[in-house]
Each structure stands twice: as C-alpha cells, then as structure tokens.
Amino acid sequence: MKKSNNQLGYFLQYLSLALVLAVLSVSVAFSTWAVFNYFFPDLLFHPLP
Question: Is residue 47 part of a domain?
C-alpha cells in the first residue's frame, strides 16, 4: 500500500510541474509576441508615409 501512495505523490508532483511549465511557456510566448509587435507594429495602424 505504501507504493501506491508514493506513486500518487509523484503523480501530483508531475501535475504541479506540468502546470508551472505551461504557465511559463505561455508567458514567454506572449512576452515574445508583445516585444515583436512593439518593434514591428502592424501597418494597419501605423501606415507607411
């Protein structure tokens, strides 16, 4: 019985790690997108002269 509790603990630890990695990856992706749009804005709102 001790082994199943240990497996449950590892599974819960994996789920928390997966959630942290998902939040970090989404944050990095949206930050990269925001910085890219800051330096290269959409030409619809900033037309060329």
Answer: no
pLDDT digits 0-9 by tens, 1-49: 456 678 888 888 888 898 899 999 999 999 999 999 888 887 776 666 6
pTM here? 0.63
How many domains, in total, are found in the chain? Answer: 1
Structural domain contains residue 10: yes
Query: Among candidates 13, 36, 33, 14, which has minimal Cα distance to 25?
Result: 33
The rounded radius of gyration (Å) of the Cα atoms in the chain is: 21
| CB burial readout 12-47, b (16+ within 10 A) else e | eeeeeeeeeeeeeeeeeeeeeeeeeeeeeeeeeeee
